[in-house]
Design goal:
Layout lengths: L4 E2 L2 E2 H18 L1 H7 L26 E5 L2 E4 L4 E4 L14 H11 L10 H14 L3 E5 L2 H16 L3 E5 L12 E4 L2 E4 L14 E4 L4 H8 L4 E6 L15 H11 L3 E5 L10 H5 L6 E4 L10 E5 L1 H12 L16 H14 L2 H24 L5 E5 L2 E5 L8 H7 L2 H13 L2 E2 L6 E3 L6 H19 L2
Parallel strand pairs: 5-17, 7-10, 7-11, 11-12, 12-13
Antiparallel strand pairs: 1-2, 3-4, 4-5, 6-14, 8-9, 13-14, 15-16, 16-18
Helix pairs in contact: 1-13, 3-10, 4-10, 5-9, 6-7, 11-14
Length: 456
Amino acid sequence: MASASLGGVSLQRIGVVFESAKRRYIENHPRSLQRTVHGIAGFYDGVPMHWMRDWSMPFPFLVESAQGSLLRDIDGNEYADFCLGDTGSMFGHSPAPVAEAIARQATRGLTYMLPTDDATAVGRLLAERFGLPHWQVATTATDANRFALRVARAVTGRPKVLVFNGCYHGTVDETFVRLVDGQAVNRPGLLGQASDLTQFARVVEFNDTDSLRDALSHGDVACVITEPVMTNSCMVLPEPGFHEALRRLTRNTGTLLLIDETHTISTGPGGYTRAHGLEPDLFVLGKPIAGGVPASVWGFTDDVARRLDAVRALTPPGHSGMGTTLSANALSLAAMRATLESVMTPAAYEHMGRLASRLAGGLQHAVDAHRLPWHVVRVGARVEFICAPGPLRNGTEAEAAHAPALEQAMHLSLLNRGCLIAPFHNMMLVCPATTDAQVDSLVSAFAEVAGELTRE
């Protein structure tokens, strides 16, 4: 009888590799063990944010410092960082122009509900880089998406939002829906959800043009919100012609199109949108836009602006439901200006793309050498190995491709070899400070672990 397996690897072997990695991790982190194994006092679940428990490690290590592409913990271990704050530090930890801008602004005040001279530069830079004329600043991509969807509903007079199954757009309520047996349901695991989110959302599979056409034909969808590439599960690329069909169908039905580039900004200086000639009505970018300082932006077309002006002219004074006091604070604008002017440069992207291509090729070679039924996907500086055959077509296939126990063993084993990758999926980012040697070390470590997992 064949032994049970996951991703082409026996469960028994996965368990052996993970337990060995776990013992090694504990040995290498005595100080972090002492301080975190029972949780950090004062924090619920022992961590400042609950998802810090979702790493593969038996307990989180405490970070001492990070610079560029290198991260150090309090036990003196160093890591080539390919997680990069899962995109928040996509351009490296504390890039010099951003650190200098933060230091300058720190003595001038951090927030005062008024624009600065940096704002005059940022507005121009956003319009030039991303091609939309009107911008607003928020604190997180969740906020930016939420505000943009409110505008979409306001200017169309329609109640619903369309999302793709398996999507991720932060913690926006309307996007927490999934398809189960062809029916939209609230996403499992939500806490304190008081309403049926499916009343305000339609859900179809990514790359499914026929289902998209049918869902939009009802005439009640204000906006389609999507990443140009699905990234937060296992990565799903758009099939040829999908984005053209998406834009055509939204225009034909009077539906707005929102492109969320928070992860796919890895593609190039103008994101996937500029690289592939997409034409969104609304655009959102968060995470790395201010070099790691919490900030996000959302932009829209002249047409949306005109329609928004008309709605506001008929709306009585009051709270718009968009804002938050710390949005567009002086510190975030200073950091954003430095990032746009001096960090997110064509030269930086050229370096990132070259090394990401090297990384993807090296990982795929290791996969093939060990005859694993896996595949590797890349979007610019973003690389992912998927423990299943590919390519994947939609969110349902992406969720089915996850192999949690196998991925946990891989992640912890890579960590013990000095390579840190994203905890929630098998994502790796290359930043401007990443070196050829670091990429080669990750490829070598990956090949070693693959060899351990497939050893008879």
